[in-house]
TrEMBL record:
PROSITE patterns: LRR
Name of this protein: Leucine-rich repeat and immunoglobulin-like domain-containing nogo receptor-interacting protein 1 isoform X1
InterPro entries, alphabetized: Dev_Immune_Receptor, Leu-rich_rpt, Leu-rich_rpt_typical-subtyp, LRR_dom_sf
Signal listed as a keyword: yes
Signal peptide residue numbers: 1-29
Organism: Biomphalaria glabrata
Length: 539
């Protein structure tokens, strides 16, 4: 019985595969355009150096998912150019259109769902777009359009779900948006909006889920934004917004999942964050947080982000001028990524991150750290990536490593480390990649890599090394070591490698060049000449 059932299933799978091949062959056979375009379920003509849209050779009504014509040199779309194409999506983006006929989309009124006209140099919107009564997605970004007529959106307002018109010459909040009663996504980035009039979002206050107003010259935070009740994503980066008033995010308390306000003018963490209960990603990077706001330097366990503690996965507070680890990140027990890079943090405290058991990535690079106490990373049981590059460290924080048992990658590049001590990487059984490049190493101890059995990749590039340290042989799992940019000569000082090779049977790939033979790599010298030149030294 089991064999019969198995054979039956195999037959069903075979028939399904055969049917798929037949269908694919059928679609390919009736492709309505010739080379260089190709067809599957869509017609692919993108980036083919075309100067015109290839005419459809058949008008039998075969349906395809999309017609993709982006990144060509098409300059003219006449009234009959697209006739014969039966598609639900058209992409004409990144073509230098000189002429786009007002009747270009006539005949597609009922079945065209998506239209991409990004960066096609049009100055006005073809009136035939307004007749696409089932259009759901429209992208007209990066065109020198100065306005959107109200009549343009009147017919498509019941169907349009996503509208992108960033990077145009529009200098106001268009009243034409009042017709878009089902809108879910709106991108007006890189337009000079400045001000949102009363009622600006009324038409879609209950439906809009994603709003991008990047670099829109907004100042201050606009009250109209507070009326959006279904928002899941809000991006207000590159605006002169100094604060989000308390209560401004109340209507989106249980919907907003991603908030981005990078490169704004925030001088502290807005109190409005307290109202967010399902936030997953927060990016407030590149804000001048110079104040003594209690949530930045305070010691209480309370935090403006505590209502999102169960959902917050990603926090970016990079380049905010912070002098200490913000209290706001305390007790975010589901946090997975924390970026505190490029700040002014000088000292870490013991148990600094102990309330972040799910943190996987911690970025502390480009901070003037002077001290890392041995329990600084206590509690980071899930941490796999730790970046401490360019932190002015003078030593390897070896004593801290046993606290991060799952650490996979450690970046200590471009510090002021001069020595690699004995047992430099203890108690890190999963550590596979270490970067010590751009440190002026003066001395590497004989047992430096004892207990570094899991390290597979070691970077010692540009470390002023004049010899390859024999202690590398202790890292018996090492597969690649980078020593490029060091004045290491290829001579009998490398003869210890022959002993290493005899004992282990395999040696890592050594990436770097011989200082005395710049055209020869160290690996080549080891594999082709070392035995000949120095075999007698080893005996």
């Amino acid at each position: 019985m089991f064999t019969e059932m198995s054979e039956c299933k195999m037959l069903q799978v075979s028939l399904l595969c055969l049917l798929s091949l037949m269908l694919l062959s059928h679609v390919t056979a009736i492709c309505p355009v010739s080379q260089p375009c190709q067809c599957d379920i869509s017609i692919h003509c993108q980036n083919r150096n075309l100067t015109e849209v290839p005419p459809a050779m058949s008008s039998d009504g075969e349906d395809f998912l999309g017609l993709y014509l982006s990144q060509n040199r098409i300059t003219d779309i006449k009234s009959d150019t697209l006739q014969g194409y039966h598609v639900s999506s058209i992409d004409l983006s990144h073509n230098p259109l000189v002429h786009l006929d007002n009747m270009a989309f006539v005949g597609m009124e009922k079945y065209l769902l998506e239209l991409n006209l990004e960066d096609v140099h049009i100055t006005t919107l073809p009136s035939s777009i307004a007749q696409l009564i089932n259009l759901q997605t429209l992208n007209i970004k990066n065109n020198p359009i100065s306005g959107i007529p109200s009549a343009f959106t009147a017919n498509i307002g019941q169907s349009l779900l996503s509208f992108s018109f960033g990077g145009t010459k529009i200098r106001y909040w268009p009243t034409a948006l009042n017709h878009l009663v089902r809108l879910k996504a709106l991108d007006m980035s890189h337009n000079v909006v400045t001000f949102m009039r009363e009622g600006a979002v009324s038409a879609f206050a209950d439906t809009l889920q994603e709003l991008r107003l990047v670099n829109a010259s907004l100042s201050p935070f606009q009250a109209e934004l507070s009326k959006l009740k279904a928002l899941t994503l809000l991006d207000l980066s590159y605006n002169s917004i100094v604060d989000i008033p308390p209560g401004a995010l109340t209507n989106m308390s249980f919907t907003l999942k991603k908030l981005t306000m990078s490169h704004a003018h925030l001088s502290y963490l807005p109190e409005a964050l307290y109202d967010l209960n399902v936030l997953e990603e927060l990016d407030l990077s590149f804000n001048p947080m110079q104040s003594t706001n209690a949530d930045i330097i305070g010691t209480s366990d309370n935090s403006l982000l505590r209502n999102s503690a169960a959902t917050l996965r990603f926090v970016n507070l990079s380049s905010c001028g912070l002098n200490a680890i913000p209290r706001a990140v305390v007790n975010l027990d589901q946090l997975e990524v924390l970026d505190l890079s490029r700040n002014r943090i000088v000292v870490l405290n013991n148990h600094q991150f102990s309330s972040l058991p799910h943190l996987r990535t911690l970025l502390l690079n480009d901070n003037p750290l002077m001290s890392i106490p041995y329990l600084s990373f206590s509690g980071l049981t899930s941490l796999t990536y730790l970046n401490l590059a360019r932190c002015y460290l003078t030593y390897i924080p070896s004593s801290s490593l046993p606290e991060v048992q799952n650490l996979d990658t450690l970046d200590l590049s471009s510090n002021q480390i001069t020595r690699i001590p004995d047992v430099a990487f203890p108690g890190a059984p999963k550590l596979s990649a270490v970067d010590l490049s751009n440190n002026s190493l003066v001395y590497i101890f004989d047992y430096a890599f004892t207990d570094a059995h899991s390290v597979r990749t070691l970077r010692l590039s540009r470390c002023s090394l004049t010899r390859l340290p024999s202690s590398l042989s202790q890292a018996d799992g090492l597969r690649t070591v980078f020593v490029d940019g060091n004045p290491i000569p290829c001579d009998c000082d490398l003869s210890w490698i022959l002993t290493w090779q005899r004992q282990s049977g395999i040696i890592p790939n050594i990436v770097g060049r011989c200082a005395d033979h710049p055209t020869m790599t160290i690996s080549t010298y080891v594999s082709t000449r070392l035995q000949h030149d120095c075999g007698s030294v080893v005996g």
